[in-house]
Structure formats: C-alpha cells, structure tokens
Amino acid sequence: MSSKKDIIKKKKIIILLCIAAVILILAIAIVSGLLIYNFANKENAPQSGNVNTLDVGEYTNMEENNILQVELEGENNTNETNELNTVTNESSAKNDTNTKPKVVDAPYYIKVNYGANVVTVYKKDSKGNYTQAIKAMVCSVGTATPTSGVYGITDKYTWRLLEGNVYGQYACRITGSILFHSVPYQQKDKSTLEWWEYDKLGTKASLGCVRLKVEDAKWIYDNCVPGTKVEFYTSSTPGPLGKPTAKKITNDTEVRNWDPTDPDKNNPWIEYLKNQSQTTNTKPVEDNKNNNTENVAKPSDKNTVNNNIANSDNNIVDKDKNNTNTDINKGNTAVEGNTVKTQQTSGSVGKKENSLNKI
User: Fold this and answer.
1) Domain CATH code at residue 125
2) For the chain, what is the domain count?
3) What is the pLDDT of residues 218-243, one digit of tens each?
4) Same domain, 227 and 282
C-alpha cells in the first residue's frame, strides 16, 4: 500500500514540475518578445535631429515614409510642375545638400497668407512677442498647401530635387513634403528657370510648396534657423506690409531663363537692367538738349526781328530825308505826297513791333 502511495506522490510531483516548467518557458518567451519588440522600435525610430516636436495643428504629416499622392481635380495644365517630394527614403535622394544646424531660439516668425499669396516675416518686440513685421514676400501656394496650423522649419537644401524631375533653389522644409523654395528649374542649373512659372508668382500656381523669388527663398534659407515657426492662415488682406509684386519676364527673351533677383554675379539680368537704365536716361538728356536749343533760338530770333525793325525805321527816316530834300526842289505838292507815304510806312512798322513784343 505504501508503495502505491509513493508512486502517486511521485506522479503528482512530476506533473507539478512540468506545469511549472511550461509556465517558466511561457514567461521567458513573453519577456524575450517584449525585449525584441522594444529593440526593433528603437532601430526604426527616426533620429532626434529629424523629429519635429512642434505643434502641427490640424494638418497631419503627409509623409510618414509613404509616397504622397496628390490628386488634382480639373487640372488642365499639362506642364504643371510637381513640387511635392514623394521620395520614400529621404536619405536615398540624390543630389541633396542637406543642412541641419542646431536648433536655437528663433529670431523670426513666418506667416503664410494662403488667400493672398503673401509671406510676412515678424521679429520680436521688446516683450519678446513676434509683433513687428519686417519683410513681405510675394509667393505662390497650391492645392495641398496647408490653410491653417503652425509648423516648424527643419531641413534645408541649397538645391532640392522635386517631383517631375525639376529642381528648387534654397529649399526649407516646413512640414512633410511642403517646402519654401524658388520657382522650379528644369535642371540643377541657374540658367534653366521655368520663366512661365515665374510669371505666376502672386497667384495660386504650385501643388503645395510655397514658391518664392530667389532673393526671398535665400533670405529664409540664410536667416531662419531650424525651429522657426511657420503659421498658415487665409485672408483676403495681404498683411501689414501689403503684397509685393514680381517682375513679368516672359518678354525679356534674352535673360528670362534666370531669376532676375538671383544675386549670383553671373546673372545676366545685372548687365541687362544696367543697359536698360542707361538707355532710359539717355532720352531725357537728348530732349533737354533740344529744349535748350529752342530756348536759345527764340531770344535770338526776337532780337533779329527787333534789329530788322530798327534798321527798317532808320532806312525809312533816311529815305524820308532824302525824299524831302529832293521834293522841296521839285515843289511843295510833291513834298506833301512823300511825307504822307513816309508816315504810313512808319505806322505799319510800329504796329509790327508792338505785335512781336506781345509774343
């Protein structure tokens, strides 16, 4: 009997040990799974330099490592430049010059007026609030441009490859695939500007990025550090500094392949505008010469007429004297006749002199 009881006890102990072993194995598996999961998340997490911790408002990040597709309804312009960056892996993009300075306290605050196509830059007042408007820029927004919300500048590029195999100068990422940049270029070359797109500045012309003149895009690139906030809003009123204009360059066929505001020393617009200015200044000088010639001629003409009149009077007087002396010898009747004629002639000359003095 005792042996049977011992066997039963041993069986129970074995069963309990097996159950304990199963529980231990499950616990180890669960802990291992959690560790592997956390490690995988750390590997896939973005680097701290690329994390945008600023308030993104109501407009979500459209990138998130997925290809952004924008569907434009009623798009009739087959030459529309696609500016939204659809590259899945940012680090694999070619020809990028990526600059990521350390984030510091931003001296400027940027507002983009979606309704008026105007960008206004503000600096801090004495209380540290961004209330002093210092610069206004004409721009072109588009269908996918945010209409509200506050974002922050992150990455910067001197040249940025855009969808449609075109390029933008001085690009600054605002959020996701929305950037500040110049009007697109057909190549990574400053002499390949899409001038027909440049003439659209001030109107809704992009797909989502904020297009600017080169001088304005460069100003943001040079002066607005990562972390600079960019606020989007919609209003028909441009802003406190109004809405600047951009030169229309379609008819300037010799130089229209360059942005006229590009500070590059090789920009042909510099010499082109200089020649235009000289041509414009030459015309008034020639007109002034003509006016001076006319003004000099008039007094001379008047003096000539007056001299002629005086000479005519002298000649008449001399003639009268001669006629009088001659006629005295001939008779009194002839003298009276010549005297009458002489007086009539002198009277007509007097009338002519009075008439010229009134002119």
Assistant:
1) 2.40.440.10
2) 2
3) 999 999 999 999 999 999 999 999 99
4) no
